[in-house]
Structures
1.
Amino acid sequence: MAELMIEAKELCKYYGSFKAVENMSFSIPKGQVVAFLGPNGAGKSTTMKLLTGFISASNGEAHIAGYDMAADRLKAAEVLGYLPENGPLYPDMTPRESLTFTGEIRGLKGERLASAIDRVVKICDLKEVYDKAIGKLSKGYRQRVGMAQALIHDPEVLIMDEPTSGLDPNQIRTVRDTIKELGKNKTILLSTHILQEVEAMCDRVLFISEGRLIFDGTVEEFKKKNENLDDVFYALTHDKEVVS
């Protein structure tokens, strides 16, 4: 069996009586690219924050590369790259300054830092804007800077929340191609509302609704009842029967 890189074990997150995530369990082996789907408010972002240790679980466990996020978060962070939706960037910094700062936080110095920056600038195609203020960049370029920050330490696991949200078609194509290339040697979990991206990039689909996992299977299994992914999405959000 392939090494498990992302694991959720009966994860729960409660805010008072509201159940944002309830008994979420799944595992993702090394080298798999997985789409995390569901309607707005389904609990996707909350689940990603639980998996990355950004927030703590009310119950259950999250593991990254075998590390328990409650007990070994710093160790897990060494192998994890996280791109939240609308990730924080310093608008007065340039990509050069931001990547240097992020790399140093990650413990990179000297030649290792320079090599890491060169690598992510190439992967994310940032050369053209390398010394421009981030606050003056297009949303597409800002998203690429955020991705470069997540990749600076060459993590084995990537978790990305809506990486193409708000981008134009050309920007979406660029980010999608980047993710496809990264998926050749990394384990990736990404949320998206663009169902065509699921077919283009992903090996597997996790679908949640109202904080619960209701589908876990391949893209082909996801489509089996209807060739139109939009219709499948609609059917799953209006039928609470668990499919696996």
2.
Amino acid sequence: MGAMWAWVVRNADTDAARFVEGLLLFLISVVLARFVRAAARGQLKRTHVDPAVSLLVARLAYLGTLLLGVIVFFTVWLKNPTLVFGGFGFFALALSLAFQDILKNFIAGIFLLLERPFRIGDEITVDNHTGVVENIEMRTTTLRTSDGEEVLTPNSLVYTGTIINRTRYPTRLFTLTAKVPSDVAVDGVVARLREQLKTRPEIAKDPAPYVGLQPNVDGGLTLEVRYWLDYRRNDPLAVQAAVGQQIYQAIQSSK
């Protein structure tokens, strides 16, 4: 490697030698870009920076180092910085016209990381798809659905569309309903069940859980229970099963 570099320096006046010299510098920039990206991620992770900000900074550092390597390559090869920068301007214009969709998704991805309408790990609904945000890539946002499916949504569609962030706030409203049999005496069921739900430590006290009876179109009654839960600290499915068991027991004890 050292002998090749010395040969390139001695014969730098020839076009071929300048091309090889620029190419070596570009390859060094590729390795350096990966090192810069890894170092940026590691440093930002140690300082507990938001994952979205860490991803954006690491990505921009990587692309910036690569772009610098490309400029150095053409500058060394052509030995005309004015021509290189002028050519890059023309190339950037042609690239933006030829790859409008890719460029639009890339810029939208940067704005998503800057504005942070959601974070990596949030559960969102966008374009009729609901899932946990796994990654915000250069072209797409990756979601993982509750069924284990991977959904890739273009960043431009995410940025310009309506986003429902289901995990923005610490508590979420859950609703359970149960049809009350005709042979059940409903007197006292609502009050008794409401008091039982208030004693559950995982259910939020403010707002208090709601228990009420709703009429059915067939003339019967439906018992409706609504409660707020800190889903980040408690398993929603486990709490839902426990509350459902309490509803069943309250109905059975009133027969």
